[in-house]
Design brief:
The protein has 3 helices and 10 strands; from the N terminus they run H-E-E-H-E-E-E-E-E-E-E-H-E. The protein is α+β, with helices and mostly antiparallel strands and 157 residues long. It has 2 domains: 31 residues; 113 residues, Immunoglobulin-like (Sandwich).
Length: 157
């Protein structure tokens, strides 16, 4: 009679290494997932969180005969402006720097600066939100101060 060889499974060393690799892979996936949810903080003015700087932004705006006027009497430079156009049953949000015919300053609207441009809006109300630029671990980033009740400036067309 022939003797059967005993067939063993994976050796304990290989099984342990596989378990460690699986645990490390799962930990890495969870770490990257949580890191993506938290996001990076953007700072302005000597390390202050840019969300807190939004409270200090002050600007005035008006829209008359197809011309949008914006002035910055405050102490915080405004890098851009996010415009939410509200019409019947719809709304769209645009960056003022991407609108055709807009001549928004490249460096933004500094303290005491003014802006005016002929821009046509298809709606009955516009809400302006200031866009600030700050520093993060990944370089310079923009941040939209988009809390309607606190930072939005509403103009009826």
């Amino acid at each position: 009679m022939k003797k059967r060889k005993e067939v063993k499974g994976l050796s304990p060393v290989i099984a342990t290494v596989l378990l460690i690799v699986i645990v490390i892979a799962i930990a890495l996936i969870v770490f990257l997932w949580i890191r993506g949810m938290i996001g990076t903080s953007v700072t302005k003015f000597n390390g202050r969180n840019i969300e807190l700087v939004c409270e200090e932004v002050s600007f005035q705006a008006s829209y008359s005969e197809g011309i949008l006027y914006i002035s910055n009497p405050g102490n915080v430079p405004i890098f851009g402006m996010s415009i939410r156009v509200i019409g019947e049953g719809k709304h769209i949000t645009q960056d003022i720097r991407t609108i055709d015919g807009s001549n928004w300053p490249e460096a933004g609207l500094n303290q005491g600066g003014t802006f005016s441009s002929s821009i046509n809006f298809d709606g009955n109300e516009i809400i302006l939100f200031p866009v600030l630029i700050g520093d993060s671990d990944e370089g310079r980033k923009t941040y939209v101060c988009d809390k309607t009740d606190e930072y939005g400036y509403t103009i009826l067309i």
